Amino acid sequence: MKTLSAEVFTYAYPLVLMDVTREVATAKVPVNTFGHKRAFPDAAFTDVVSPNGDTLYSSAWLDLSKEPMVLSVPDTSGRYYLMPMLDAWTNVFASPGKRTTGTKRGVFAIVGPNWQGQLPKGVKEIRSPTDMAWLIGRIQTNGKQDYANVHRLQDQFRLVPLSAWRKGSRTAVQPVPRAAMIDTETPPAEQVAAMDAQAFFTRLAALLPANPPAADDTAMVEKMQRMGIKAGQPFKTTVLEPSTARAVQEGASAALTMIKANGRKSAAGNMGWRVQRDIGVYGTDYGRRAVVAMFGLGANLPEDAIYPTARADAMGRPFDGGSRYVLHFDKSQLPPVKAFWSLTMYNEKQAFVSNSMQRYAIGSRDRLRYNRDGSLDIYIQYERPDERKVSNWLPAPPDAFNLMLRAYWPDQVVLDGKWMPPAVQRVN
């Protein structure tokens, strides 16, 4: 039973984490309503793990159980944006944006798995595999001075129920009152980690009717049945034999520990960098899906963004703010992308690190100082460097940290693995 519980926990972890994240988010911004981030997140932001400081988010949690939602996107005049949509199991099922649909105006109807009907002319159907969906819009933002331009675009994104759209409405309806008694302070990942097995598997069972497993999940559905998990019914460890109940709890705890450990493994053989190119859609690779959910919930398709991560330098030594580091790109080594790239600093909880400059990421859109030969040095350290290096400084915490390099709309050489970031060198 312990092994069975661990397998089911790993399978279900992304779904439960999505639901808790939805609950926290919709306590602040109602369901089927855009919530626009008007500024980059700071070190106090904990709503999602691994936030970015490259784009302003326009996101919405959708409930498609009653009817489709019509999404209108503006003409961004060539500006890069993407609007990926995740189902309840964290798979990206559509990704409108510059790469796929261009930057002209567009109208899409996001429909649930069981919806049947005809859409108005000019409205393109996007079918979600689950009634719960998360729309995570991102608009390229070139620093704080670019906020006003992006705000104007954000204000033109619309979400309208199909019934209202048919009646000619192009503005959102009055949102449903916000839920009460929701913990909006504790990060969702920590809330899930604090659940005992009974609470976790009960939540899973409650979510299954509206968010059914995929067709390829037949074997896992059978395992859930063997555990006694039934869609829509509470899971009670109290009715189990004490030894069985203990095994269920031990399995869930072991799975959580394993997901954390797998996410923190160093990338031996990759010069300190770990790259997952098969993200966004996971099939039956439940372990990988769980790791991505824990450390980067809301990850894009690799065609939209690749996220090399590093926790150690070129010699395999874990990053520590007591040391100084340099990330050196030869001119020919700079990240090959069609949009832009950035390097982001995170602490051990995958959150931004407070610093005097309020700089959490650095990249191609910044005023970097390049070397005479076209190469580039990024300085990664806790202490402020010499003034001539400040433009290229990514502040680190005084203790452990990790790095994420975001390559937006990467070239094929990145997708093929023919390009890798250079190793981060410790210089003291």
Question: How would you characterize the overall build of this protein?
Answer:
With 428 residues, this protein is of the alpha+beta class. The protein has three domains: 28-166, Sandwich (Immunoglobulin-like); 192-264, no CATH class; 273-426, Jelly Rolls (Sandwich). The protein has eleven helices and 20 strands. It has helices at residues 2-26, 98-101, 147-154, 162-166, 188-194, 197-207, 218-227, 242-264, 286-296, 387-390, 412-415; strands at 35-36, 55-63, 69-73, 81-82, 85-87, 92-94, 106-111, 124-127, 132-140, 158-161, 273-274, 305-306, 309-310, 325-329, 341-346, 361-363, 376-381, 393-395, 402-408, 424-426. Strands 1, 2, 4, 5, 6 and 9 form a six-stranded antiparallel sheet that branches. Strands 11, 12, 13, 15, 16 and 19 form a six-stranded antiparallel sheet that branches. It has a four-stranded mixed sheet with strand order 8-7-3-10.
Radius of gyration: 22 Å
Distance, first to last CA? 50 Å
CATH superfamily of the largest domain: Domain of unknown function DUF1214, C-terminal domain
Give the percentage of residues in beta strands.
15-25%
Number of strands: 20
CATH architecture of the largest domain: Sandwich
Quickly count the domains. 3
Count helical runs: 11
Can you give the helix content as a percent range?
25-40%
Q: Do you know the CATH topology of the largest domain?
A: Jelly Rolls
Characterize the main sheet: 6 strands, antiparallel
Helix-strand makeup class: alpha+beta
The low-confidence runs, each spanning 5 or more residues with pLDDT under 50, are: none
- The best one-word shape is globular
Mean pLDDT: 93
CATH classification, class level of the largest domain: Mainly Beta
